[in-house]
Design a protein that fits this description.
This protein is of the alpha/beta class. It is built from 10 helices and 9 strands. It has a 5-stranded mixed β-sheet. Helix 1 runs antiparallel to helix 5 and helix 5 runs parallel beside helix 10. The longest helix is centred in the middle third of the chain and has 19 residues. It is globular. The two termini are 27 Å apart.
């Protein structure tokens, strides 16, 4: 089953369990985010990637450009290990990792969660590529990917048992779009996937296709 099919299957099952009033809140939040038009103003295909300093699961500082020194780079921004759609995507990327490496590329995932929570996510999904913490979404903001969750959506998440502030260790309730970038070794972005709807993710076969074109 493709990544897209798995995501849609999960969405369908989830929707059957969620009350109609809660679905309205979630739909309204998506509509509001779509109106903001972040994908149009965010860093995208054709732009040069900005450098940034993130934290790995060992709590060490890591520069983005240190990966580019080794060749092309695939970057996946995800919301957090609490998000089932993010975990599905991370697993799909892990399955694609051997082919990504064969093409001489590096793969990293970036999340606003703290290193301890990043480690938990990596272990839960048996991730063997770097999972990096973007504290306070500092780097994602540089790329124009960050939005704030509406108050009513925050309350819905709390009902689901999801405390974003605890995972990120701040009270901002800010998240990045679930974006994916493929960057050539010069730092130019050759493929970007920027989507407000967190259920939609870039299928790894598109990543492979972009890497093969380099």
């Amino acid at each position: 089953m493709s990544l897209t099919a798995k995501l849609q299957e999960t969405k369908t099952a989830f929707s059957k369990q969620v009350p109609a009033d809660v679905q309205v809140i979630m739909t309204n939040a998506l509509d509001k985010l779509t109106e903001e038009g972040l994908p149009k103003t965010a860093t995208q295909k054709g732009d040069t990637l900005k450098n940034g300093t993130l934290i790995n699961i060992k709590k060490e500082k890591v520069d983005i450009f240190s990966f580019l020194d080794k060749g092309p780079l695939v970057i996946s921004f995800y919301r957090g290990g609490w998000c089932p759609y993010c975990n599905i995507e991370l697993n799909a990327l892990q399955q694609a990792l051997p082919e990504i490496k064969e093409l001489g590329a590096q793969l990293i995932a970036i999340t606003p969660e703290t290193p301890d929570n990043s480690l938990t996510t990596a272990e839960k999904n048996n991730i063997s590529f770097p999972v990096l913490s973007d504290i306070n979404n500092t780097y994602a903001k540089e790329l124009g990917l960050v939005f704030q969750m509406p108050k009513d959506l925050q309350e819905v998440y709390h009902q689901f048992g999801i405390d974003v502030s605890k995972h990120n260790e701040n009270e901002d309730y800010e998240l990045p779009l679930p974006a994916t970038y493929v960057v050539d070794k010069s730092g130019k972005i050759v493929l970007s996937f920027l989507q407000e709807d967190y259920v939609e993710r870039l299928d790894p076969n598109q990543v492979i296709k972009a890497l093969k074109s380099l």
